[in-house]
Amino acid sequence: MAKPVLIGVLGGMGPLATLDLLHKIIAATPAEKDQDHVPVVCWNVPQIADRQKALAGKGDSPLPQLLEGIEKLNRLDVSHIVIPCNTAHHWYHALVEVSHAPILHIADETITQILSMEAVPKKVGIIATQGTLSAGWYQKKLIAANIEVIFPTEGEMNRLFVAGCYAVKQNKLATAAQLLEELSASLVNRGAEKLLLACTEVPLALAYNNSPFLKKSIDPTEMLAQSCVNIWKDQKK
Questions:
Q1: 101 and 111: one domain?
Q2: Residue-by-residue DSSP string for 154-204
Q3: How many separate domains does the chain show?
Q4: Are residues 145 and 183 in the same domain?
Q5: Alpha-carbon distance 93 to 90, whole Å?
Q6: pTM of the model
Q7: How far is 84 from 224, CA to CA, in rounded Å?
Q8: 124 and 215 housed in the same domain
Q9: Could you tell me which PANTHER family the record lists for this protein (predicted)?
């Protein structure tokens, strides 16, 4: 008999992005009463070393704190684990080794859903940390599917993305929205049909002022939420 579904969220990266995932799981769930919703437990403890600084060689590794979070979720006997932080997936394989439950990879879940769209985009602009871009989780599979990928310039990464990302963490959403909208506009002006928001802070910024770029966006947080809902629905069949 399969283990009852209990989704474990390894969060805190950042804390608002974690809440965004929880909200999107609820929003995506067909429900008529409380009991119809996805069972979820969440480790939203943000005292985790900065992932971007660690990968740039300017800070401590977050792995010890990530492993602690996995251990907490193991104790709760979760059936699946999700991580609403793209950059944290650099330590994915180390976490899989100690997790008692399968860990869904945010990029894999997103790419699977992109390629199943009725109208698959031909050109995608990607907004992500340098660590996520360097890992290539998204663009390698997009390019293999004959989808052109448009990247921010180095200047845009420093002036718009990094500043916008940290503005979300500082709860300065108006500033974040202004910076990340400018970056979105640049990618669209260079031909992007869709924007892949491959940093979980970005949807929060664009949603703050209901950016028109949301209509052009693919949100991995939303894709991860849908995967959680699908797991729950499959058990209920």
A1: no
A2: HHHIIIIIIHHHHHHHTT-HHHHHHHHHHHHHHHHHTT-SEEEE-STTHHH
A3: 2
A4: yes
A5: 8
A6: 0.96
A7: 8
A8: yes
A9: ASPARTATE-GLUTAMATE RACEMASE FAMILY, GLUTAMATE RACEMASE
Question: Exactly one of 42, 85, 165, 228 is catalytic; which is it?
Answer: 85
Q: Give the torsion through C-alpha atoms of 117, 108, 102, 17, to 10 deg.
A: -90
Tokens of 29: 């769930």
As a whole number of Å, the end-to-end CA separation of the chain is: 14
199 classed as catalytic: yes
Q: Is residue 2 in a domain? A: no
Q: How many residues does the chain have?
A: 237
Do 54 and 151 lie in a common domain? no
CB within 8 Å of 189: residues ≥ 6 apart: none
Domain containing 36 equals: 7-106+222-236
> Are the C-beta atoms of residues 79 and 6 closer than 8 Å to each other?
yes
Q: Is the same domain home to 140 and 211?
A: yes
Query: Which one from 42, 165, 199, 228 is the annotated catalytic residue?
Result: 199
In a domain, 47, yes or no: yes
In this structure, the dihedral spanned by the alpha carbons of residues 139, 126, 161 and 8, taken in order and rounded to 10 degrees, is -80
DSSP 79: S
pLDDT tens for each residue of the chain, 237 residues long: 678 999 999 999 999 999 999 999 999 999 999 999 999 999 999 999 999 999 999 999 999 999 999 999 999 999 999 999 999 999 999 999 999 999 999 999 999 999 999 999 999 999 999 999 999 999 999 999 999 999 999 999 999 999 999 999 999 999 999 999 999 999 999 999 999 999 999 999 999 999 999 999 999 999 999 999 999 999 987
